[in-house]
């Protein structure tokens, strides 16, 4: 009977193991269960016999009471349980799991490679239709279609005051609608457009700097007069700063000052030559122009009119058109903030965290508020070129994670699915308005060192990570960091923080701290030294949290972009403060 029971146990264990073998989640349990059965049987045998027995090469000894016959029977019973069979079964299950994991990794790599090839094709031509036969790539967006939507949002139709700014979001405005007694097409309702705000502002009013929606609308109207040829329309024409020591942050800060002057003087700002766009990636008229990366600050009609006036000595002498040379450096950088909206900066919420406490106020709150409004306006809509850069950056960093998610959501082999899948209306008009996927929550960190020591207090990477850990202690589901830095030593130090997932652009970095930023950018080349910082900037603006150094103009502007992009209540953790506060 005892032998029969033993065989029954063996049969049940074996059958159960085979049933569980197909479930990855149970395989570890199987290993532990089978090992436990074997060890338990051996211990029972030892306790029963008080004898000596062999288990592999290990000899266990205990008290001998001349029970050799009993010991032999018990050993046979243990051997009869056949632990070797169970160990082989366990090994088979582990091998099966390994094979399936390997197959899964191959499928992920295959999908990632296909996405990469199609992404490259899409950038080089209008081949986005190729995506219809593939699983959805949640981290990518149709740049050509998105840019066309932005163009609609930035173009006035006829003599209307505003473009098609309605309460219908994004691509819903392109949905064919036949008005009836129950619904009025918002695209035909002037009253709705009059009361609408710019679609590039997201989040509630509390999640943005005070009056952000109104200010952005008013700046757009100011920069887009109904008739650029009106004799009352005046202009300010200026090139972007091009001195070697000026980084992108300094260029944007300087142009923000010029926009403030233009608003104060009732002029339309026309930004002309942008040296950082003077490379082969910027094609046609966008070369050497801000329009390579973002939509222009004013209409083409106003630009043409301003350039015509620049040729007129009379217009220049009468001040119909002015240039940067008409204003002092001090006025451009430290001039009065526009007061047409009152003093909204006195209502800034204290969400900046420095040296263990919230920053309540400082001497340059007006400048901080205005630069935030200016940088948001200048970067309100990325171009197709910038959209493609962001697609490539997200694909390089998150593409394999996205492929794994996509495959897990499919019941069948994606390669065998029909290439003629119809796209649903909700996908085309509603879900298409969602931002591309990134692993969230995501913390962006800008670590500035190098030659910045002459302008601000430079701290080591460890201090930045202390702030990151502080955020994580409050939000334990946070484990991903998008890291931007010019120093290779920072990248190396990330290996010491294995509990974080770090993502960053793959570019050459400085090996020594005393290299100037101008020399570093010269080594990278104009195209790379412009593209990758802008990618980092936009990733930081969209991240859930940010750790930086407000003493850096770049971090200062990221802060402004976030505070006009619905991120005020996410807070800003800085390792230092601006040197002028």
TrEMBL record:
| Keywords of the record | Membrane, Transmembrane, Transmembrane helix
UniProt-listed Gene3D superfamilies: 3.40.50.11350
Q: Does the keyword Transmembrane apply?
A: yes
Asked if the Swiss-Prot or TrEMBL record annotates the protein with the keyword Membrane, the reply is yes
Q: Which spans are transmembrane here? A: 24-47
Q: Which GO terms describe its molecular function?
A: alpha-(1->6)-fucosyltransferase activity
Q: Which GO terms describe its biological process?
A: protein N-linked glycosylation
Identify the domain of life: Eukaryota
Protein name, entry field: Alpha-(1,6)-fucosyltransferase
Query: What lineage is on file?
Result: Eukaryota, Viridiplantae, Streptophyta, Embryophyta, Tracheophyta
């Amino acid at each position: 009977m005892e032998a029969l029971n033993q065989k029954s146990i063996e049969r049940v264990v074996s059958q159960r193991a085979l049933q569980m073998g197909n479930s990855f989640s149970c395989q570890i349990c199987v290993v532990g269960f089978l090992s436990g059965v074997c060890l338990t049987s051996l211990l029972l045998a030892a306790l029963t016999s008080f004898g000596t027995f062999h288990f592999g090469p290990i000899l266990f000894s205990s008290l001998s009471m001349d029970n050799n016959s009993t010991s032999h029977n018990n050993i046979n019973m243990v051997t009869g349980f056949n632990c070797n069979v169970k160990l082989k079964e366990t090994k088979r299950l582990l091998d099966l799991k390994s094979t399936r994991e390997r197959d899964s990794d191959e499928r992920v790599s295959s999908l990632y490679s296909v996405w990469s090839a199609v992404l490259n094709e899409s950038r080089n031509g209008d081949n986005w239709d190729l995506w219809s036969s593939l699983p959805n790539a949640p981290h990518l967006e149709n740049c050509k279609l998105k840019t066309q939507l932005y163009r609609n949002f930035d173009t006035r139709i006829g003599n209307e005051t505003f473009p098609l700014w309605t309460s219908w979001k994004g691509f819903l405005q392109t949905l064919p609608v036949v008005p009836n007694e129950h619904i009025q097409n918002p695209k035909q309702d002037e009253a709705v457009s009059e009361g609408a705000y710019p679609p590039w502002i997201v989040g509630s009013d509390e999640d943005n700097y005070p009056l952000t929606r109104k200010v952005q609308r008013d700046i757009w109207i100011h920069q887009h007069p109904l008739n650029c040829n009106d004799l009352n329309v005046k202009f300010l024409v200026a090139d972007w700063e091009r001195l070697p020591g000026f980084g992108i942050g300094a260029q944007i800060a300087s142009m923000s000052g010029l926009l403030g002057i233009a608003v104060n003087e009732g002029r339309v700002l026309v930004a002309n030559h942008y040296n950082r766009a003077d490379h082969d990636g910027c094609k046609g008229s966008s070369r050497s122009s801000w329009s390579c990366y973002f939509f222009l600050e004013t209409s083409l009609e106003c630009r043409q009119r301003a350039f015509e006036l620049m040729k007129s000595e009379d217009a220049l002498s009468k001040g119909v058109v002015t240039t940067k040379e008409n204003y002092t450096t001090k006025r451009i950088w430290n001039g009065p903030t526009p007061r047409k909206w009152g003093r909204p900066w006195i209502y800034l919420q204290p969400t900046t965290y420095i040296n263990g406490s919230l920053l309540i106020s400082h001497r340059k709150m007006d400048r901080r508020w205005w630069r935030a409004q200016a940088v948001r306006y200048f970067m309100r809509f990325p171009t197709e070129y910038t959209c493609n850069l962001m697609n490539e950056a997200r694909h390089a960093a998150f593409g394999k994670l996205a492929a794994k998610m996509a495959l897990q959501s499919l019941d069948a082999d994606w390669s065998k699915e029909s290439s003629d899948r119809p796209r649903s209306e909700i996908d085309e008009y509603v879900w298409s308005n969602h931002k591309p996927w990134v692993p969230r929550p995501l913390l962006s960190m800008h670590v500035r060192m190098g030659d910045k020591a002459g302008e601000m207090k430079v701290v080591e990477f460890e201090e930045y990570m202390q702030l990151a850990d502080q955020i994580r202690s409050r939000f334990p589901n946070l484990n991903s960091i998008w890291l931007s830095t010019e120093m290779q030593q920072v990248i190396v130090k990330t290996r010491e923080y294995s509990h974080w997932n770090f993502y960053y652009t793959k570019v050459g970095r400085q090996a020594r701290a005393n290299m100037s930023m101008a020399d570093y950018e010269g080594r990278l080349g104009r195209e790379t030294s412009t593209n990758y910082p802008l990618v980092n900037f936009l990733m930081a603006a969209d991240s859930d949290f940010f750790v930086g150094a407000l003493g850096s103009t770049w971090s200062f502007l990221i802060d402004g972009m976030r505070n006009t992009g619905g991120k005020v209540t996410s807070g800003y953790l800085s390792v230092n403060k601006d040197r002028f506060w």
